[in-house]
Amino acid sequence: MREAATDEQAGHPVAEGILRRQAARESAARTYARALPIVPVRARGLTIEGADGRRYLDCLSGAGTLALGHNHPVVLEAIRAVLDSGAPLHILDLATPVKDAFTSEVFRTLPPALADRARIQFCGPAGTDAVEAALKLVRTATGRSGLLAFTGAYHGMTEGALAASGGARDVRVTRLPYPQDYRCPFGVGGRRGAELAARWTESLLDDTKSGIGHPAGMILEPVQGEGGVNPAPDAWLRRMRSLTADRSIPLIADEVQTGVGRTGAFWAVDHSGVVPDVMVLSKAIGGSLPLAVIVYRDDLDVWQPGAHAGTFRGNQLAMAAGTATLAYVRENRLAERAAVLGDRMLGELRTLAERFPCVGDVRGRGLMIGVELVDPEAPGDPGGDQGGDQGGARDSRGAGGRPEGVRLVPGQRPGTPVPVPPRAAPHLAAAVRDACLDRGLIVELGGRHSAVVRLLPPLTITDEQAAAVVDRLADAVAAVARSHHRD
């Protein structure tokens, strides 16, 4: 990751000094600061201004936290109202008018079948705290300990959340295939790939020799964010709901990043009509301030007083900012706006895949968009999404000049070629991210190999700003493609 100041920042004493002190004092675990060596001093909407005077279009949005962008007037007004009222800022889990208003607004937006019989638990301030609470809830309610989770998942950085994520291991967690088109684990994609993924899950649950037992719950993201912007097919999500309901397995929907209009519906589960047993909410629900809750079916509410607590679960400023944000998104139909604008941006960005072989796939839902970079010179792996040749036959070149592999899949006639995507190219994705920053655009990377450039603009982005984002990203990709071709 690049961590040194850019030329402009290196020539600015304030920015240079702050960046130097950060590198000397802060933990080696810091992340965004390494790849984005800027010093924000002012921000409004989509725009951040650095200490060096440069302006950036922020498509990171606090990792999806800023549904309304930076310092939206309704959020600032809500915060000032609490400060001016003399209300307590820290209230543990006591009832207050501010908290009551927030809870009412959350319930107003929930799927009606859940809202009618829901309970809400205020957790610690981060989404990972809410995931821990959800796991504890279903384990307490069912008396079971096993958990079903999905490859490519990301649910947080605490121990239980990591165990449910794709990058950690726990004997109590059974990993299931998450359907995706571009790098389908079964090599087929589309409805057939989703059907095979569902059958695999059903087989494991019903096979008395699968070794997984009867789990306490299933946790999934309706769109995998950190996993590379992989939207779950609606039919597959409904199938997971049916499989879990028929077997009395609570379904947990992690809406930390997908919620509050991000995907083109208020909650991403709304696309499929699925009503989960538990919803994990954070990020945008706090209106840019730390806040996390779980909302769940009342019959799961069996834990004892104090079974799950947290000192900072009573953040009044976050509740006020969250209420204002939820109401603004709902009243101004920003979810619908995200759906329309997201479709337009996806369509424009997909032309990059036609122009540049290093762009393997463009995907997303609403204003949650990913562009996967690949190495057009490196064939893919028929046995997986990144390893070497494991014996599959090879075509010479595929459509658009991209090398492709050939593999056989269940139910496929011998001799029928199935394209295998080229290898993921994290070095090209990092180069695109850096080229975007040089052009005043902030993006982040995700995916299994950090090869997916991710866009999470605020829902308030204008048509003109969206066009500027697409133009800057396209220019960055073109520059990286030219450089890679010369190399």
UniProtKB/TrEMBL annotation:
<feature type="compositionally biased region" description="Gly residues">
    <location>
        <begin position="381"/>
        <end position="391"/>
    </location>
</feature>
<dbReference type="InterPro" id="IPR049704">
    <property type="entry name" value="Aminotrans_3_PPA_site"/>
</dbReference>
<keyword id="KW-0032">Aminotransferase</keyword>
<dbReference type="InterPro" id="IPR005814">
    <property type="entry name" value="Aminotrans_3"/>
</dbReference>
<dbReference type="Pfam" id="PF00202">
    <property type="entry name" value="Aminotran_3"/>
</dbReference>
<dbReference type="InterPro" id="IPR015424">
    <property type="entry name" value="PyrdxlP-dep_Trfase"/>
</dbReference>
<keyword id="KW-0663">Pyridoxal phosphate</keyword>
<dbReference type="InterPro" id="IPR015422">
    <property type="entry name" value="PyrdxlP-dep_Trfase_small"/>
</dbReference>
<comment type="similarity">
    <text>Belongs to the class-III pyridoxal-phosphate-dependent aminotransferase family.</text>
</comment>
<dbReference type="InterPro" id="IPR004637">
    <property type="entry name" value="Dat"/>
</dbReference>
<protein>
    <recommendedName>
        <fullName>Diaminobutyrate--2-oxoglutarate transaminase</fullName>
        <ecNumber>2.6.1.76</ecNumber>
    </recommendedName>
</protein>
<comment type="pathway">
    <text>Amine and polyamine biosynthesis; ectoine biosynthesis; L-ectoine from L-aspartate 4-semialdehyde: step 1/3.</text>
</comment>
<dbReference type="InterPro" id="IPR015421">
    <property type="entry name" value="PyrdxlP-dep_Trfase_major"/>
</dbReference>
<feature type="region of interest" description="Disordered">
    <location>
        <begin position="373"/>
        <end position="419"/>
    </location>
</feature>
<keyword id="KW-0808">Transferase</keyword>
